[in-house]
């Protein structure tokens, strides 16, 4: 079994203590986001877990706990997002310089094969045009050269709650407009060139757009091939049926909860209601079996079927 920790929230940044408590207990429970009364028990015993895939913008709270994961026999790798957007788009994330230093420390600790850099999602607005992203991506890539071998990119998805947050900015006199246009082929090729110049393989995340001609292959974030290459074990090759059609990930079990991340990114698909996220954070008990308790988290509304799954 592959554990996803997590597409729904940043467990390393905000819930590292809870995770380690559940590892020591050997299990956690996960309420179904659509029906919180339906709760599944997930084994976290090392013999039952093939690999843990961590998704994060700030793994620093987990770094001091990696030795215990190693001692217990866990295999893991990180999907690590570093962007350089204006603060209006991501007010709570670590500054780029801090994120880069943490990334490098993590790669020094576990190796560059196990830390995947995500410049994801690419958000085209009047304040962040294509040229902005090319400049920021090139700058970050130069600082991460030798510390990772993979770069993942994708476009922002226009979920209704994301569009509503952008509209709200306009109503507050701080308008910023999301572009609905795809990245130009030249822009994609230039991003591929940045990756190649810094010895990184580039791939896309859940993109229907055919980018292969621009040297960006369809990617897998929960990646059976990466797992087999890095850890030397065979895992499922089954595409996760609960993810979007364009998603290449193999089957995993997510142990997170929606509406629990505190980074407050304007474009976030997993936090639909900032008030619910604040209240859920207050409800969090690091000793509880579920991230937000077996009675389920408060949600702004039922998850859209386009969101990453309840699996």
How would you sum up this structure, described in words?
- The chain has 311 residues and is an alpha/beta fold.
- The protein has one domain (2-283).
- Helix content is 31%, strand content 15%.
- The chain is built from 10 helices and 10 strands.
- It has helices at residues 11-14, 16-25, 60-63, 66-71, 96-110, 130-144, 160-171, 185-197, 224-231, 274-283; strands at residues 2-5, 27-31, 39-43, 51-56, 76-81, 115-122, 150-155, 201-204, 217-218, 253-254.
- An 8-stranded parallel sheet has the order 9-8-7-6-5-4-1-10.
- Strand 2 (27-31) and strand 3 form a beta hairpin.
- Helix 6 runs parallel beside helix 8.
- The longest helix has 15 residues, at 96-110.
- The radius of gyration is 19 Å and the shape is globular.
- The two termini are 12 Å apart.
- The model is unreliable at 295-306 (pLDDT under 50).
Mean pLDDT: 91
Rg for CA atoms: 19 Å
Count of alpha/pi helices:
10
Q: What structural class is derived from the secondary structure elements?
A: alpha/beta
Q: What portion of residues belong to β-strands? A: 15-25%
Give the termini distance in whole angstroms: 12 Å
The total count of strands amounts to 10
Largest sheet: 8 strands, parallel
Domain module tally: 1
| Shape summary | globular
Percent helix: 25-40%
Report strand order across the widest sheet: 9-8-7-6-5-4-1-10
Name the features:
311 residues; globular; two-stranded antiparallel ribbon; 10 strands; alpha/beta; 10 helices; 8-stranded parallel beta sheet
